[in-house]
Amino acid sequence: LFGTKNLWRFILIPGNTDLIKQINETRVLNIIRQKVSISRVSLAKLTALNPSTVTDIITRLTDQGAIEEVGMGNSTGGRKPQMIRLNPKSFLYAGVYIHKHVYCILMDIYGQVYSKMDFLLSDPEKLTLSNIAVYIRKVAEQAGVPISNLRGIGMGFPGQVDSQYGIVKFAPHINWQNVAIKEFLEKELQASVFVDNGMKATALGECWFGAEKGLSDFVLLNISDGIGSALVINNRIYRGLNQQAGELGHNYLLGNISPAGTNLCRCGKKGCLETVASQRAIVERFVNAAGADPETNTPDILNKIFLSWKNRKEPGCEIIDQAAFYLGITIANILNFLDPQKIIITGSVVEAGGDEFLARVLEFAKEHTFGFIDSSRVIISSLGPYRYAIGAATLGMHHLFKAGIQDNDDLELMV
Ligand SMILES: [Zn+2]
Predict the structure, then answer these.
(1) Ligand 1 centroid distance, CA of 24 (Å)
(2) What is the pLDDT of residue 371?
(3) What is the DSSP string of 144-190?
(4) Among 181, 229, 207, which Cα is nearest to 397's?
(5) Omega into 315 within 30° of 0, i.e. cis?
(6) Where in 244-333 does DSSP place strands (E)?
(7) Which residues contact 117 (CB under 8 A, 6 or more apart)?
(8) CA of 319 to the centre of ligand 1 (A)
(9) Ligand 1 centroid, distance to 271 Cα (angstroms)
(10) Contact 349, 278 (CB under 8 A)
C-alpha cells in the first residue's frame, strides 16, 4: 500500500515530538521565505497546521530574532492583518569556493550580498586549512558580521568531495587528498560548515538564485579551465555511486582523428572533450599554433582568440569552431539522453565567447539532437563569476530549509 518512503514517514513521525516540531518549524520557515511576507492567518492555512501551533512557532522564532513584523497587509473584510517576514540579518551565510582562483561571499537568504572578495592563489598547492579560516574571517569582517552571527558556512571544491562528512577526498588543483575540512573549520570557527563539490553547489545556487527558478530537472555545464557538470533530476542532485556523476569533460569524443594540437588529457587519457573545448585546451592550442606570448594572461589570450574567430582569422577560427562542434555534440548527447528542462551553461569560455559562440554551439547541437530543440532550452547562467561562492553559501541555506522534511533522503532541493 505504501512505498518504503511513505512507510518510513508513517512510522517515524508519531513517536518523535522533536522531529515533528522541527518539521513544522521548517514548513513555516519555508512558506514565509517563499511568500516573502505573509499574515499569520494565511500562514496557518498554507501550512495546514493548527493556528495555535503556528502561533507557538512564530513566538519562538520571533524571540530568536528569526522573524520580524513588517507593516499591515490588505484587509479581506475585517481589520488589516499584521504581516511577518524572515529577518534577513538572522539568515546570513558565508560561501567560499576554492580553486586556483578563490571566491568568497557573505549573503543572506534573499540573495542580498554583504561582502565579497576574490583573488588568485599564488601557490595553490601550499593552501592550508588555516588559510581558509582566514578568508572566512576576512569576508565576515568586511561585512561587519561576527562569525557567530552566521547560520552556516558553505565550501565548494573542485574534485571529489564527501559531502556527508565534509571531507575533500581528492582535489588535484590544490593537491589535497582526504582532508577533513568540516571538522577543522567547525572547531576553529565555532560555526556550522557544509562542504560539497563546487559544481554540485553551483547547481544549488542556480536553483535558489538563478534566472530560471523552479527547475526540477536540469544540467549545469561548466566550460572553464576544465569541463564539468552537475545533474539535477527530479529536484535532487544526482551524485552517482562514487559521487563522480557529471564528469562530462572526460567523455571520449575525439576518436583517432583528433584535431591537430590536442594533447593527452590531464586525466591521463586521450580524446577527452576537455582536450579540445576547455579554456586550457583552447589557449594551449592557440599559443602553440600562433606562437603567442605565454606570459600574456589567460583571459586576454582567450579574448584575443575569440576576436580572431569572429573575424574568421586563423588559427583562432579553426580552434573555436572545433570547440563549438564538440560542445554542440555534448549538448546534443545530454538532450538526447536526459531531455532536461534546461541546460545552464557557465564558465570562462562561454563568457568570453558570448551569445555568438553559444549560437554556433547550438547550430551543431541541433544537427545531432533527436527531434526538435528549442534554443531557449540552453541558456547562459545569470549568476556571474561569483556563482561558485553563491552556490557554496546556498549549501547552508539548503540544509536549514530542508531539515526534517525529507525522510532519510538528504538531497532534496526544496526550493
Ligand atoms: Zn580526460
Answers:
(1) 47
(2) 80
(3) T--GGGEEEEEEEESSEEETTTTEEEEETTTTEEEEEHHHHHHHHH-
(4) 207
(5) yes
(6) none
(7) 103, 104, 135, 138, 139, 142
(8) 18
(9) 7
(10) yes
C-alpha span between 210 and 358 (Å, rounded): 19
Least confident window among 161-165, 343-347, 406-410: 406-410
- Per-residue model confidence (pLDDT) at position 291: 77
92-98/150-157 β-pairing: parallel
Grid look-up 575533500 returns 168
Grid coordinates in use for 167?
571531507
Of 47, 42, 82, whose CA–CA distance to 62 is shortest? 82
Q: For residue 252, how far is its CA from the centre of ligand 1 (angstroms)? A: 8
332 CA → ligand 1 middle, Å:
20
Nearest to 282 by CA among 222, 365, 352, 330: 352
Residue in the structure block whose three cell numbers are 580553486? 99
CA 249 to ligand 1 centroid distance, Å: 6
* pTM (two decimals): 0.84
In 3D space, the residue among 397, 27, 341 whose CA is nearest the CA of residue 213 turns out to be 341
- CA-to-CA distance for 142 and 105, rounded, in angstroms? 10
- Ligand 1 mean position to 201 CA, how many Å? 22
Q: Determine the distance separating the centroid of ligand 1 and the alpha carbon of 248, expressed in angstroms.
A: 9
Q: Per DSSP, which regions of 14-121 are E strands?
A: 37-39, 67-72, 82-86, 92-98, 101-108, 113-120
Cα Rg of the chain, angstroms: 24
Q: Provide mean pLDDT across the span 186-212.
A: 93
CB contact at 8 A, 231 and 241: no
d(CA 317, CA 24): 58
Ligand 1 mean position to 128 CA, how many Å?
27
The residue assigned the cell 525522510 is 407
Query: Which residues have their alpha-adjacent CB atom under 5 A from ion ligand 1?
Result: 250, 265, 267, 272
Residue 125 has pLDDT above 50, yes or no: yes
pLDDT, mean over the chain = 87
**pLDDT value of position 288:** 87
Q: What is the pLDDT of residue 410?
A: 40
Q: In what order do the strands lie in the sheet with 160-162?
A: 160-162, 167-171, 176-180
Instruction: Tell me what percent of the residues of the chain surpass a pLDDT of 90.
Output: 56
